[in-house]
Amino acid sequence: MGDVRVVHMGTRLHYPVTITRLLKKPGDAIEARQVVFEYKFSWQREIEEGRFKEETSYADFESPAEGTLREWKIEQGEVVKAPQPYMAIEEACPHDVQLGNMCAKCGKDMTEVNFATAEERDTDRANVNMVHDNVGLVVSNEIAMSNEYSAQKRLLSQRKLSLVVDLDQTVIHACVDRTVAEWKADPSNPNYEAVCKTKAFTLTETHDLVYHVKMRPGLSDFLAEVSEMYELHVYTMGTRSYAENIVALIDPDHTLFGQRIITRTESGSMHAKSLQRIFPVSTNMVVIIDDRSDVWPHNRPNLIKVVPYAFFKGIGDINSNFLPPATKEALPVALPGANGSAANPGPATTEAQPPTAPDADKAVLAMRLKDDEEKLKEQAEEQEKDLQQQVEDRPLLHMQEELEKEDEAQGEEPKRHILLTDDDEELIALQDHLTDVHKAFYALYDKRRRQRKSGQAPQHKPGETKVRRPSNDTGVDLSLVPDVGDILENLKQSVLEGLVIATSGLVKGGRVEYSEIGQQAQAFGAQVVDEVSKRITHLVVSPTHERSEKVRQAVRLRSIRIVSQSWLVDCLSQWRRLDESAYYVSVESLRREEAERRRKQGEAGSGSVSRDATPDEDDPTGQLDLGDDDDMDDEEFRKLLDLDSDEDFGDMNTTTDDDDDEGSETDDDGSSRASDADLKSSQESEAGTNNGASTTVPSRTKRKKPSGEDTDGESDRESVMAKKQRIARSRPSGLRSEAVIVENGTGPDAGDESTTLPTPGTNGGDVVNLDRGEEEIDFDEDELERDMEAAFEEAGGDN
Amino acid sequence: MFFLRNMERRVTLHPSFFCKDAHDLVIDNLLRDVEGSCSGNYYIISIMDTFDISEGRILPGTGMAEFTVGYRAVVWRPFKGETVDGIVVSVNPQGFFAQVGPLKLFVSSHLIPDDIRWDPNATPAQFTNNEDINITPGSSVRVKILGTRSEVGEMWAIGSIKEDYLGALQDASETFGGAALDED
């Protein structure tokens, strides 16, 4: 055994010190606290107030370590000015694996602290948690590194990656509602078919509660196939025994997960999961699948968020007491039932959405919010209470009864209502994603290796005689390992690239950019904004907000696609930009109202003098993406335009065509028209300023705009950063649309007749709108007031 | 190592239990509280008998009665250098954990003979010499304790199998009357 440790002098000496005598020779044995050298130092003694006298003191230096002295790093007579290493000592035991403050190699107590060791504690020599199922065992950084590298090498040679799997609502759904058992025993029950696939176990620590577990459809195949590409780990916030029971169900012969299970007992944090707990050195080869992304604050790049699996409707994650309270902006959905399911025109996967928490659950949620900061024990009690409540409340039974009652109330024939359906398809998509990631990872890795090889080849000098040792290339080179986080990001970014998304009703309070759904959409390449403006391409609407103010605004701006939330959810789940046509929200009635209103406006403003187009005049409320900060925006935008139109005008047609090829046809129509208007107006306004004519008119409207913007009450909250991003994003679309203008030679409204979009509102109101004059601006103020009121009520309704 | 040890404990009894069977209740309480507990240095395995139950003394304020009970119990104290038999509960690249009766014991991979290596590819992962020895969860092992550490209510130990006659036991019947069998 020979581990050389270099010992430092520490900061406690009175530097500078002079080494007067070295007491040991290399090769000598040193005991702990044995004096190894003597030194002297000078210092100021205060004789009386304000008077000092310099004195020289002599002192001994005790060794904090024991072992055999290898080498002195200092010399006799040397003046040491600052802390520095003074000796290398060969230790019998490096204490680099410790269990509960005891060296696991020699059994020595690591908590012993004395004067000599106070600066370098033995317990600090091992502080990395490496083992899944025990928190007491810690190792040193060096060991952690060598272990992880050897693990990575092993994975590389097997061409695998690591996959960290969450249990609850990701691969299984568990509940303790005994209704399940009753349904299971009753073949005549409409839910029998779905329920009979559940499995059950009991835990002694929760007083023999029966847990009913439903595996996500296709789970065993999924795991079997994924385990060919990934080494699987379980990371759950459930208890150890819970996790072990679940794993026994999904992996009965322990071939998939082995012992790689980590639970809340070992997690080290009550609220968050951390990859560093299992992979302290490098997470380059780790992918996570979880239904909650907020529990992985530091590992988002590695995370594949899956749609939560909610088989037992209305019952969330039974272990979520230990997680931060779910931000259940999560997409309220009508209960699938006799008349509920018709509301969603989307494909079958929409059932995969999390159901709204029923009232009971909301109460629980509030409770969870309350004790978020309290201790683990209390949370455990809380969970027990929740479980108990679930047992007593039997939410499933109630929901089933309600379903049937609803029917009776409507006087329909009583028919069999199936509350629980088993049609989740998330795992299929998930498996595809995982395969893609795996493929991309190894493609990149192989490419890098090829490059390295070909790059190295010329290094051989032509006449070199020395025979190089043939590199034993085992297909493994750690330095070339790409980061799976980057790969994931690349894969995701392209999905919704170029889209600008606003939401209505999805996020309650706070900015959508920071919300869960917003962050996800951003991870997939979309730009997320709060406001409805011409720049946005999609407005994502929750079923409860189909008539909100934002939707009205979007209806007015005909280029925006108004889609239901399931579109976004499905896109994020399938990693594809889905065709919106199946998800359009019906806005016909709104459009009619709008047309009606505009017609009235038109009548009121019919006496107006028609004048040339001013910025945003086709936008009745002045709802451009212009806020207080807008003047600058416009300015920049114009500058940009100026520059571009002078220089590359000719090229633009081609670039536009290229750009248009991405994405679906309809979309480009929409987005380009959106920016058409934008662009045209700013162009024109510039022309106005240049000519010196009609300058007053635009400026007047401009001043009004902010107040119009305030109907939403959010405009001025946009950060500088977001603004810059916005400007940057608007550039290509601006160019593109300009080219389109040139091509068509028409204004923004010209394309409307030909478009096949379901959203556009080509109603009579528009024509009138074009002719609106200056007087109408005054009229706008009334309208603004109304809008503001409406928005205010809207906002009030939300909360 | 097992010891027979005389000890004393104060047991309190709620007033609602004051009756002619109070002494039995005291003994019940004692058994429930003490048996299987760890007092830091040793585990109390079993109470043989109680030999002295004092008069009850009413505690001011609560009305509870306090009895001082003398009892004799079998205790087990693991010693440094002692050889024990245990059952492996989990293995990892760093070593393996074994349960020796109530005691959790860790054997680091440094203290496993060099020919027995960590094999992560086996299912389940195990320490093996690729011949007759493999250490997986459930294996019986004979371990020499290198050090123990205790805290209130908990003990753990470090062990080694890097010596003659230590390591995996081929056959469960080989296990002699060690703690592992006693406790299970």
Describe the protein in words.
- The complex is a heterodimer of chains A (799) and B (184).
- By secondary structure, chain A is of the alpha/beta class.
- In chain A, 39% of the residues lie in helices and 15% in strands.
- Chain A has 22 helices and 24 strands.
- In chain A, β23 (538-541), α13 and β24 (561-564) form a beta-alpha-beta unit.
- In chain A, α4 (219-229) runs parallel beside α10, α10 crosses α11 and α18 (665-691) crosses α20.
- Residues 326-374, 464-471, 607-718 and 732-778 of chain A have low confidence and may be disordered.
- Chain B is mostly beta strands and 184 residues long.
- Helices cover 10% and strands 48% of the residues of chain B.
- Chain B is built from two helices and 13 strands.
- Chain B has helices at 22-34, 179-183; strands at 2-13, 43-53, 57-58, 65-76, 83-92, 95-100, 103-108, 117-119, 126-128, 134-135, 140-151, 154-160, 167-168.
- Chain B has a five-stranded mixed beta barrel with strand order 5-6-7-12-11. In chain B, strands 1, 2, 3 and 4 form a four-stranded antiparallel beta sheet that branches.
- In chain B, β8 and β9 form a beta hairpin.
- The longest helix of chain B is centred in the N-terminal third of the chain and has 13 residues, at 22-34.
- Residues 173-184 of chain B have low confidence and may be disordered.
- The A-B interface holds A 97, 99-109, 130-134, 136-137, 139, 143, 147, 151, 154, 158, 254-255, 258-259 and B 80, 90-95, 97, 106, 108, 110-111, 120-121, 123-125, 137, 146-149, 151, 156, 158.
- Chain B: Belongs to the eukaryotic RPB7/RPC8 RNA polymerase subunit family.
- Chain B: Pfam families: S1, SHS2_Rpb7-N.
- Chain B: Keywords: DNA-directed RNA polymerase, Nucleus, Transcription.
- Chain B: InterPro entries: NA-bd_OB-fold, RNA_pol_Rpb7-like_N_sf, Rpb7-like, Rpb7-like_N, S1_domain.
State the main characteristics.
heterodimer, A: 799 residues, alpha/beta, 24 strands, elongated, B: 184 residues, mainly beta, four-stranded antiparallel β-sheet, 2 helices, 13 strands, 48% strand, S1_domain (chain B)
